[in-house]
Amino acid sequence: MGEFSVDDKARSPWTSLKGVDIVSISPSKTRKIKGTITIPGSKSLTNRALIISAMSQGKSTVTGILKSDDSYWCIDTLKNLGIDIEVNGNTAIIVGNGLKWNSGELYVGSAGTIARFLPGALALSNKGIWKIEASQSMSKRPIASLVNALEECGAEICYLNNEGYYPLLIKGKELKGGEVNLSGAISSQFISGLLIAAPYFKESFIVNITDHIVQHSYVHLTLELMKKFGAKVKYDNSLKKIEVYPSGYFPQDLNLEADASTACYFLALAAITNGRVRIDNLTYETLQPDIKMVDVFERMGCKVTRGSTYIELEGVTQLRGGFEISMREMSDQTLTLAAISPFADGPITIKDVEHIRHHESNRISAICESLSNLGIKIEEFSDGLKVFPGNPKPTLLDTYDDHRVAMSLALIGSRVKGILLKDPGCVSKTCPQFFDLLEGLGLQVNLN
């Protein structure tokens, strides 16, 4: 994939590791990772809750927010739209104004949640005009499916550069609702973006999913949060047909749970070091789909304890491999599994994740190139990869300006001395304190 440029504009004031070009990660002196940690709040829930709170009329208090690049740009965007937001620690107080947005120019960084959830919220405002720009990487990710569906509902949206991609120009007007057909194969966020706007449509709204949804659980998560804010919705578990009725949103006080995607990196540390890690603010009952990664760890031989207020994983001396698995429903953990697969006793084949080629980086190619540079045998497919057992060699690796690439490759440093990662600050997209948490668990982390 070659050299990858860093989009410095997308980094927010909440970015950690400014000025740090390379991080070196080496195993703990005791080798085994043992500890109990508290994981930052869910990125997915944070930005959904912030946007829905802003759309409601009145004051909402959201506790447990994630303070990261993505949530910074969400809050910054909402403030520029005229929403009063006060952040104290991990609590945000949002005073929604019922879609009375200020017109202007907006920047959403690399946050897929804002880029997919905001257009509908703006398009259905009775008045206003907005130019919305995104980061370099976000501007390469398709948006046409969402825009086409919103236009079917009456929205007025123009592309300012390349057809089907950011930047956008949106003119606010009343949206009627009706019925649209939409693919779920590229991103579940397109579906969520439509649904979040729908309680303010003039008429009832139906979305029919024409194929499969790459991650059903994130749509369920959106619907559950909408219901907490008073939306009236009707659907079944298949999510092939979802109905939303006019209702608007009503302010709420919420306490958000930990980010399951982030938690999995630390559970993976226990898995590959024969250690033990307990996450004290997350349970298996979460609707976040990545929690199912613990089932994969069990398949690899680990012991998982599903507590009423926590989840704990104990590793094993030798991880089990020799299987094929679909990671479609928890595709953000594809790179986590790929990074620990060299330490298994047989090859692991990951399938059904072609859509992650269109995330912050081409994640399939990025992890294949990285593992190959580490000396690991890889087979790459259009929708996944196969990782063979091996002994990674220390080397300098790109992170492709992608937080999930960086966090996954960092895991290898718990077994191999001197894993070097370029641009470690990219983890600020979802977990600015990631390397601090690694160090707190005993890994040797050196910043240069």
UniProtKB/TrEMBL annotation:
Protein residues bound to phosphoenolpyruvate: 43, 112, 141, 189, 363, 404, 429
PANTHER family: AROM/DEHYDROQUINATE SYNTHASE, PENTAFUNCTIONAL AROM POLYPEPTIDE
Enzyme class (EC, first level): transferase
Function, as annotated: Catalyzes the transfer of the enolpyruvyl moiety of phosphoenolpyruvate (PEP) to the 5-hydroxyl of shikimate-3-phosphate (S3P) to produce enolpyruvyl shikimate-3-phosphate and inorganic phosphate.
Protein name, entry field: 3-phosphoshikimate 1-carboxyvinyltransferase
Origin organism lineage: Bacteria, Bacillati, Bacillota, Bacilli, Bacillales
Active site: 332 (proton acceptor)
Keyword field: Amino-acid biosynthesis, Aromatic amino acid biosynthesis, Cytoplasm, Transferase
GO molecular function: 3-phosphoshikimate 1-carboxyvinyltransferase activity
Reactions catalysed: 3-phosphoshikimate + phosphoenolpyruvate = 5-O-(1-carboxyvinyl)-3-phosphoshikimate + phosphate
Compartment(s) where it occurs, according to its Swiss-Prot or TrEMBL record: Cytoplasm
Domain Enolpyruvate transferase positions: 29-437
Superkingdom assignment: Bacteria
Gene responsible for this protein: aroA
Family, similarity comment: Belongs to the EPSP synthase family.
Xref: SUPFAM superfamilies: EPT/RTPC-like
Record-listed 3-phosphoshikimate binding positions: 43-44, 48, 187-189, 332, 359
Species the sequence originates in: Metabacillus niabensis
Record EC number: 2.5.1.19
Subunit text: Monomer.
